Amino acid sequence: MYSIILATASRYLLLLLQMFSLFLLFRGHNEPGGGFVGGLVAAAAYALYFIANGIAEAEKLLQIDPFYLIAAGLLLAVSSTMPSLAAGMNVMTGIWFDTGTALFGKVGTPLLFDTGVYFLVLGVTLEIIFSLAEGDLQ
Amino acid sequence: MRETAGGILVLLGTFFILISAIGIFRMPDLYTRMSATTKASTLGIGLVLAGTVLYWFDIAIAARAISIIVFLFLTAPVAAHIIGRAAYFDGVPLWKHTKIDELAEDLKNRGEDSE
Amino acid sequence: MNHLLYNILLAIAWTLLTGEATIPTFTAGLVIGYLLLWISRPALGGGAYFRKIPLVFMFMLFFIKELLIANLKVAFDILTPKDYMEPGIIAFPLDARTDMEITLFANLLTLTPGTLSLDVSRDRKTLYVHALYVTSADAFRKELKEGLEKRLLDVLR
Amino acid sequence: MIGFAVSAAAPFFYRRFPGYFGWIAVSFPLFLFFSFTSFYPRIAAGEVLRETVFWVPSLGINLSFLLDGLSFTFALIITLIGAAVFLYAGTYMKHYGHASRFFVYIGLFMTSMLGLVLSDNIAAMFVFWELTGISSFLLIGFSHHKEQSRKSAMQALLVTGGGGLALLAGLILLYGISGTFEFSGLYPKRHLIVNSPLYPAATVLVMLGAFTKSAQFPFHFWLPNAMEAPTPVSAYLHSATMVKAGIYLLARMNHVLGGTALWQDTLLVVGAVTMVCSALLAFNQTDLKKLLAYSTLSVLGTLTMMIGIGSELAIKAFFIYLIAHSLYKGTLFLVAGTIDHAAGSRDTGVLGGLGRAMPFTMATAMLASFSMMGVIPLVGFIGKETLYASILEMEEWSRYLIAAAVIANGLLVMITLVAGIRPFFGSMRRLPSVPHEAPFAMLAGPACLAVLGLLAGLFPDFFMGAMLDWLASSVLADTLTFRIKLWHGFNEVLFLSFLTLLCGMLFYAARIKLLPCLHGRHITPVLKPSSWYDAALAGMLRVARWQTRILQNGSLRNYITVIVLTAVTLAVSVLAGSFSAFPEIPALDVTFYEVVIVSIILVSILVLITSSSRLKAVIALGVTGFSTGIIFILYSAPDLALTTFAIETLGVILFVLVLYRLPRFTSYSTTASRARDAAIACVFGIFMALMVLYTVSGELDSGLKRYFAGASLPEGKGRNIVNVILVDFRAIDTLGEITVLAVAAIGVFAMLKLTLKGGSR
Amino acid sequence: MTLLLAIVTGSLYAAGIFLILRRNMVKVIFGLILLGHAANLLIFTVGRLTKGIPAFVPEGSDMLTGRFADPLPQALILTAIVIGFGVQAFTIVLFKRTWLTLGTEDLDMMKTTDEPPKE
Amino acid sequence: MNQILVFPILFPLLSAITMLFFRRSVAIQRIISILSSFLLLAAAGWLLAAVISGGMLTVQVGGWRAPFGITLAADLLSAVMVAASALIGLTTVLYSLATIDRERERFFYYPLLQFLMMGINGAFLTGDVFNLYVWFEVMLISSFVLLVLGGTPVQLEGAIKYVTINLLSSSVFLAAAGILYGMAGTLNMADLARITPHLPQQNLLTVVSVLFMITFGVKAAVFPLFFWLPASYHTPPVAVSAIFAGLLTKVGVYALIRFFTTIFSHEAVFIDEVLLAASALTMLSGVLGAAAQYDFRRLLSFHIISQIGYMIFGLALHSPLAIAGALFYIVHNIIAKTNLFYISGIVERITGTYDLKKAGGVYAGHPVIGMLFLIPALALAGIPPLSGFWAKFVIIKAGFQAGEYAVTGIALLVGLLTLFSMMKIWNEAFLKDLPQPQVEGNRYETMGFGRRLLFFSPVVVLGLVTVLLGVFFEPVFRLAETAAAQLLDTQAYITPVLGRVK
Amino acid sequence: MTIIELSVDTAVAVIGLSILIIFMRLVIGPSIADRVVALDLLSANAIAFIAVYSIKNDSTTFLDVGIIVAILAFLGTVAFAFYLGKGKKQ
Ligand code: NA
Ligand code: NA
């Protein structure tokens, strides 16, 4: 079910979607969006690529075992709880840096948390899709 | 004035949207429905969004509206193509008044060649 | 394509200079940048950019015209009770070669009401098109060949 | 007092040095025996010794011990017979294997039994009570490869365990009335207890416990079956000690619960019935041990009856009888074991003429048998005499009871003749093994006990005379003095004794005639409540299987139906009871597009339910989800809408990847079941809709909402309040949420990639 | 609209329950998903509806005042949706696996784990 | 200091994450599992000690004041539950090391156990209704995956029922939580405890509490909501059955206790009547179900239900003594029941089957195992002086005190039937000779010493705990009484969480 | 009532009507592909609706949702097509 039209389009859309997913992640604190939706859109990009080009191509594109993404996402999310523990504050208390940027808004541990969510969602979704797709091949 | 122009664009857009809705309801087979409708709605949405841009007249809004338009114009034909193709190979029948089907002929020939 | 990048950079610089992040400012920046680049042709070279921009504009205008006409035609057919359609699937021999060319052409064709790219043959030489108004297959092919495909390839090549 | 501590430590001691040899083992009970006798002077002086180790003081449960006449007597019996049995078992158990286990169990038992009789705290007593039950269970099932053995053990455990539970209930009720678990604390509150409305229940429950333990009719059946145990166990637990725990309890409680018609009459009747019936049941037994077991039952009945009579004389008779029985029955059981050991059979029809081969055993058996038959000058004679005397003393019922007692005792004489005397006389038959005299270790114990019986009979005053007064005082409130003598002269009582012997001879003679007729025929089921037990067990199992088949029938639909109906029924019963009015219907201010969205959702749901195609259903589901998303947009929840759309689309992808391998969307259920399910579903749906309406009809004053609005930007550094809640205010929710996702991914992966061959492990 | 949403919620619950009472496994999946939707919509509705004023702190202001949508139920639903998604993904694959392994989609054929012991 | 409250949630999570990173190396995962389980036990012990000495601990997660953020709170009940589950977690990991096959180990078995522990601990520690839902889901999804890991047909069949019914109950939970928020405007348990008595729609509140009762009743396997349990618990590897049996249903019971002492404390009458009836039926139908079984683990599964009945009975009586009894019953049951499942695994290794009719001869060959079985079995049947006796004793005493003679009578009868079932196992699996000698090689004999050590140490440890709980009942009971007093004093829960509220 | 208000109100109504019409096609089918096309068109209508609704409510927050809808609708359509394609091949 390979279509050259879809395959070509998917290659260009991939970048577009990935960029948009990051955009959703970073401004989620101020506008609709956030790590979860961002992660889903990123996963959607890969899903599109997979449908257009096949599972092998998609896995090659990702390069990394989705489980490591999951683990990394969880680790990021958990590690955002650590600074406050180390500082003797209540666990998960947000710690913010004074510098802010136009795109991100303020930078702080909650953003780290959201980034963890992003990676985790990406990893989870891809793991599920890839497992299912590989299951098909068997 | 600008807002009024926006309003008119919106109305125009919704007109095309309605057309496509009626089209998809009225057309005889899948392919004609797709031919008739996907673009009409794409155009319609484009117009509505353009109206939105005019109404707000703000770069952030424009960026969003334009990205939607661009994205739609990029993806709508691909989507139409992929469905049409899948439907065709899935055996969705053509309208009985369809004049010619060169794809079917070629497929038949190709099939004979390869066998 | 470097010139396009320059042009956009100039537009952004313009926007920043004016300190007004609005559409008109940015559009103005684009136009001014284009003019500046055109003026500085001897220094920067790259005639293709200036040749193509008008072509792109022309193509866009052509396409929008086609889009509107076709849309209205189909709309008329939809809104009136009688059906004027004579649909059919036509094999169209492609001149477009690269993935990009084929994809763009097929998509633009699909975008135009009344036509729908159904499939590309495995040897990538034929595009199968479903069309609503096929009076004659050869006429249809000819019209497409000289119209959309030619103009598109002009822009791309 | 140190004796208690040693007894408590004993089983642990034991496990470390598994006493293979009776000689080592016997030192333990002997030591205890002598340490108890050392208290004799103080007990005799009327002292009551107490010792308390705090255990669970907040529940009033402590290891408090009480040494008075009653417990003293029992303690002596337990340790003395224990010594004999240990010594005997050291040799006897050699051919059983796992002898060390046996000693662990029996040591555990002895300790528990001592604990039982010494406890002042009834809850602690109950603990020991149950422990004796468990060790009895282990000992009955000692030959565990025999199915009969296992069955009997289970039967004994269930019957006594069930009684134990009744006892527990009774004890707790008593506690509820009196506020104390100490026997010594209960005595002064007797009045309170007897007048309580709970008194009958408590009394019946306590009696149930005692009756089952002491195998009173109709719970007697487990005891003969318990003869599957090795002989030392039968001798020790099932004649001399454990079965007397119930009797002990009755005697102990006599103080507290006694004096009422309920108590006295019940004991009297149950005891008398047990006494006679079990003796009758012995009639067609041919197994040595079973014969002895039925005689034990009869004696237990007699003892119960004597408490029921409750006069001072009766209580004294009770004690004499108790001691006498322990001595002779222990001996006889051990002799039976010796015979079995030597001759390889316990069938009275086969055994005979063993006297020549085993003269010492015969002598021992003779002594014990005569005591059991009540022949002068053995202690059994005194016991019987006193018994008759106490019955004659009664005002009512005396005549019937005398008849019953004479018949029962006559039957006992017959049993003795069959089991204790006949095997040694007559001609020797062909036996499974050549009989030989028992080794000294197996002889010493029973012989000592038998001789002790003789001595106690000859010198009753020395052995028991002084004791009896204060013994009786530990069961009764006040005492008279009564001198026991071997010889009271020719009187009514003596006549009865002779009558008894005569009866016994007659029964014996008749038995030879009757036996063929009785053989193979069942005595009426009424007399054999073990069939009740079997029926109850089978009935319980049938009910169990039935209810399991009904409830746990494997059909997921039924499970869900039950759950949903339970929820609805409960909720409706609340609503029906209290809501008179329908919830206030909110004003219907809707716009056209809202109606469109809602009707799309409703139609999609309908399509989904009725659809016969999977993909159509997926699409309908997608539409439902997307429309929900639109509702979220309409009502100010853009983040929700975003997420819903994203999830729905992913759901579609998922379905698409999964679906074409999934089965058809065929419908299996019948129209009727569909209608029924639809009705259930509708009821639940209406209920939930009503819940929504009820809820929104009230005011919601959410301080949280206002707080978030104020704190989101300054403290949470974000304008998107929903997102700030997710990653900051309630970040730990989100942490859990992403964990769920991670685990789900693992699950999907594992399910698709890992398939073990073969069945489940 | 609250009334309509109450009706929708009720219908979703009813349809969900009806579907999980089917013998066909695939229908049960759909039922479970509908139940998820139903719960989400219920929370949304009982959290009170507010039209057109999302809970965003406006630019140039430190806090949100006046009438606005309650963000907490939204956050709860978000969490519930995501959790529901994970669980449903698992469930779908579980059902597929079951079908591939057991070769049936009829739940009434799946009673071995509850079979009464053979006499 | 208060932050130790988070450790029982964070430790398992962190170790699970680490194991995900080492997904290719089972050896490393095993080591991490052991380490983290010990750490968890230490943390739980520390927490318990801290709560005993210093009273209730609370943490406002993220530093947000009480009703606004999420509060983690450990009163005595929570701390004890966490400690008990940490113990079970540790023993299960050890037992798993000996019994779980290589394939399952490779497919994330150990991380899943840790995720499960995280969910369970989270449920015990949270002070927020919705957060409880989240932890329930963490626990559920982990249990789903553990249940199907391996994908054998019976596992799948069992899982379908387990999953479907639990998802239904989750949906009800969500609805109930939503309605509760819609009524009270808060989700914090302490805040709810403060507000609920003053809400205008008290009847609606009762209905909501019924919904909670249903959802927790399903998790706790109360009559007539228990069907998923006997359908599934005997299907996974025995280590998984064991930890499920020990902990999962108890979380449901915990939630019931928490909700119906803290949040809905003031409207006990109707609920208590329902709970009372449910408890009697639960006890009876569970034990009867068990009586009908001849599969070791299915029999035990039905007993779980039966014993849940006792706990619910304690809750329904709603007196300090009854609650204390219920609490002790939970702890006793967690330990004894898990142990019995472990032993069922040992018996299976020796005899090659869980079918009691086909098993046999264990006692003859391995008397020590027999004794190890008798400890939890007799404890379960309520034989003194083991822990179960006290559990039963206290509950029965409370039952009589409350004048509930009928249900108390049932409780006693059920005790007898429990004894019957346990002795059936004893007779069939231990005493009876093995009916047919095993065909294939005995998997028990081939075990190495190290493995056998891992195999037995959990059983020995839990058996020891059972005995100790019985023998040294006084301090434990004092603790239970204190916990019960805490539970029944709503203000004692509200104040530490919310601070002083007017 | 200004022109913009009028046109927005009209637009909302017309889009609602179109959605209904398309939904009918969705229900009728007959082929799966027909339904997919209808679904695609429905999501396009949703985007238009969102745009108009943002004008109506004078709130820009919703436009972002529009982008997501566009992306996801495309993805969903492709997924369905993928499914149809698979069905043919196997
Ligand atoms: Na988010
Ligand atoms: Na959902």
UniProtKB/TrEMBL annotation, chain B:
Q: Which GO terms describe its molecular function?
A: sodium:proton antiporter activity
Quote the Pfam families the UniProt record gives.
PhaG_MnhG_YufB
**Tagged with keyword NADP:** no
Q: Which UniProt keywords apply?
A: Membrane, Transmembrane, Transmembrane helix
Q: Where are the transmembrane segments?
A: 6-25, 37-57, 63-83
UniProt entry tagged with the keyword Membrane: yes
**Database matches in InterPro entries:** PhaG_MnhG_YufB (IPR005133)
- Output this protein's name: Cation:proton antiporter
Per the UniProt entry, what species is this protein from, by scientific name?
Chlorobium limicola
From TrEMBL, chain C:
- Top-rank lineage group of the source organism: Bacteria
Q: Name one GO molecular function term.
A: monoatomic cation transmembrane transporter activity
Q: Name one GO cellular component term.
A: plasma membrane
Q: List UniProt keywords, sorted A-Z.
A: Cell membrane, Membrane, Transmembrane, Transmembrane helix
Q: TM segments?
A: 12-37, 49-70
Topology versus the membrane: Multi-pass membrane protein
Q: Where in the cell is it found?
A: Cell membrane
Similarity section? Belongs to the CPA3 antiporters (TC 2.A.63) subunit E family.
Q: What is this protein called?
A: Cation:proton antiporter
What are the leading ranks of the lineage? Answer: Bacteria, Pseudomonadati, Chlorobiota, Chlorobiia, Chlorobiales
TrEMBL record, chain E:
Which Gene3D superfamilies does this UniProt record tie to the protein? Answer: 1.10.287.3510
Keywords for the protein's UniProt record, in alphabetical order: Cell membrane, Membrane, Transmembrane, Transmembrane helix
Q: Which residues cross the membrane?
A: 24-44, 75-95
What range does the record give for the signal peptide?
A: none
Indicate how the chain sits in the lipid bilayer.
Multi-pass membrane protein
Q: Where in the cell is it found?
A: Cell membrane
Name the Pfam families on file.
Oxidored_q2
Q: Gene Ontology cellular component?
A: plasma membrane
| Protein origin, superkingdom | Bacteria
The UniProt family comment states:
Belongs to the CPA3 antiporters (TC 2.A.63) subunit C family.
PANTHER family tied to this protein: ANTIPORTER SUBUNIT MNHC2-RELATED
Q: What is this protein called?
A: Cation:proton antiporter
Organism per entry: Chlorobium limicola
The root-end lineage is: Bacteria, Pseudomonadati, Chlorobiota, Chlorobiia, Chlorobiales
Automatic annotation (TrEMBL), chain G:
Q: Could you identify this protein by its name?
A: Cation:proton antiporter
Stored InterPro entries = MrpF/PhaF-like (IPR007208)
Q: Give the record's family classification.
A: Belongs to the CPA3 antiporters (TC 2.A.63) subunit F family.
One molecular function GO term is:
sodium:proton antiporter activity
Q: At the top level of its lineage, which domain of life is listed?
A: Bacteria
Q: Which PANTHER family would you find in this protein's record?
A: NA(+)/H(+) ANTIPORTER SUBUNIT F1, NA(+)_H(+) ANTIPORTER SUBUNIT F
Q: What is the lineage of its organism?
A: Bacteria, Pseudomonadati, Chlorobiota, Chlorobiia, Chlorobiales
For this protein, the parts annotated as crossing the membrane are: 6-24, 36-55, 61-84
Q: How does it sit in the membrane?
A: Multi-pass membrane protein
| GO (cellular component) term, any one | plasma membrane
Q: Which Pfam families match?
A: MrpF_PhaF
Annotated keywords: Antiport, Cell membrane, Ion transport, Membrane, Transmembrane, Transmembrane helix, Transport
Major subcellular location class = membrane
Location in or out of the cell: Cell membrane
